[in-house]
Specification:
Blueprint lengths: L5 H9 L23 E5 L1 H4 L3 H7 L8 H4 L3 E2 L2 E2 L5 H9 L3 E3 L10 H11 L8 E5 L7 H7 L5 H22 L4 E5 L12 E6 L6 E4 L1 H21 L2 E3 L1 H4 L18 E2 L13 H14 L1
Parallel strand pairs: 1-4, 1-5, 5-6, 6-9, 7-10
Antiparallel strand pairs: 2-3, 7-8
Length: about 290
C-alpha cells in the first residue's frame, strides 16, 4: 500500500521541533564497560535532549561551548540528563550505556552499534541491548536515504532488514544479550477524533486538530517494530498501547508528550517529545523486561 503524498508535509509539520542531529562524532577510546550492563540505541524519544542545546550542537565548532561541553552526550549526540535510559539506570542500578541520538532512523543503527563496540560499551558481558527506533523512518530525509518511496511495505521490509542486520552485529559481540524493542509513547489521541494537540497553554484545555495521518504513521511504526522484534527473537514492549491515555490531548497531569507550543506540560525538554513522567514510564517498562 502506497502512502499518500500528503505524508511528506504532514510528518514534516509534526517533526518540526524534533532534532535532526545525525553526526556520529568521534568515538571515545576503548574501555571495558561493566559486565551485566545495558546498551540503548534510540532516536530523540530516547535521547530527549534540551532542544536549544541540541540546535546549538549542530553548529560547527559548538563542542567547545560550555553549554555543550558540560551536557551529557555519547558519540557526538546530546542526551537529556533525565531521559529514560538514565532513569533506567537510576531505577535499577544497572549500568546503562546510552547511544541514543536525535534524528536517528534504522539506517543509523549500524554506525551507532559499531561506535558502542569500539568504545567498549557493547561487549560479551553485556546483559541487554535496547533498540528504540522507527518513527524517523517516515521522515522525508530517511525516505530518500533509504529509498523507500513512501511505500509502507517497502518501508517495513527495509526497517526489518536493518534491524535484523543490527541484531546479527550485536549478537556477534554479545551473544548472550537479551534484545528488547520498546515502542513509542502515544502522540495523537488514538481513541476518538485522532487529535494532535499542538497548543497546550490553558491549564487542562489542550487545543488541537484532527491528524489521522499521524495516527496512521504511529500505527505503522508499531507494526514495523512488532514484526522486527518477532523476526529477530526480541521482546517487543507496546509502549504506544500502554500510554494511549497519556497523549498530547489529555489533562496536564496525565500528559506524557508535550505539544508544540506548551506551557502546561510539566518537565519536558523538546516540543512534541516525552516529559520526565513519560520517560519514567518507559524506563519502568524496560526495567521490567530486563
Amino acid at each position: 500500500m502506497r502512502l499518500r503524498n500528503t505524508i511528506t508535509s504532514g510528518i514534516t509539520a509534526v517533526l518540526t521541533a524534533a532534532s535532526v542531529a545525525l553526526g556520529l562524532g568521534a568515538v571515545a577510546p576503548a574501555h571495558a564497560a561493566p559486565a551485566g550492563n545495558v546498551v540503548v540505541f534510540g532516536d530523540s524519544y530516547a535521547a530527549n535532549p534540551d532542544k536549544w542545546k541540541n540546535y546549538l550542537n549542530r553548529v560547527p565548532g559548538s563542542s567547545t561551548n560550555p553549554a555543550i561541553a558540560t551536557y551529557p552526550s555519547t558519540g557526538g549526540c546530546l542526551q537529556g540528563p533525565d531521559n529514560w535510559p538514565r532513569q533506567l539506570q537510576a531505577r535499577t542500578g544497572i549500568p546503562v550505556a546510552d547511544w541514543s541520538c536525535s534524528g536517528n532512523n534504522s539506517g543509523h543503527l549500524a554506525g551507532r552499534i559499531n561506535g558502542a563496540i569500539a568504545s567498549g560499551d557493547l561487549h560479551p558481558g553485556t546483559r541487554a541491548v535496547v533498540i528504540s527506533i522507527g518513527f524517523n523512518d517516515y521522515w522525508p530525509g530517511a525516505v530518500l536515504e533509504l529509498n523507500t518511496t513512501y511505500n509502507q511495505r517497502v518501508i517495513q521490509d527495509t526497517y526489518v532488514a536493518k534491524v535484523r542486520e543490527a541484531a546479527a552485529r550485536i549478537r556477534s559481540v554479545a551473544p548472550n544479550a537479551k534484545i528488547i524493542m520498546p515502542g513509542m509513547l502515544t502522540i495523537a489521541e488514538p481513541y476518538g477524533a485522532n487529535m494532535l494537540c499542538f497548543v497546550n497553554v490553558v491549564p487542562n484545555l489542550p487545543a488541537g486538530v484532527p491528524f489521522p495521518l499521524l495516527q496512521q504513521v504511529e500505527t505503522y511504526t508499531a507494526d514495523n517494530q512488532r514484526r522486527a522484534a518477532r523476526e529477530i527473537g526480541a521482546q517487543f514492549i507496546d509502549i504506544r498501547q500502554a500510554s494511549r491515555y497519556h497523549n498530547t490531548c489529555v489533562k496536564d497531569a496525565d500528559r506524557w508528550v508535550s505539544g508544540y507550543i506548551d506551557t502546561t506540560t510539566a518537565n519536558y525538554t523538546m516540543s512534541l517529545h516525552p516529559s520526565r513522567a513519560g520517560s519514567a514510564f518507559v524506563a519502568g517498562e524496560v526495567a521490567r523486561a530486563l
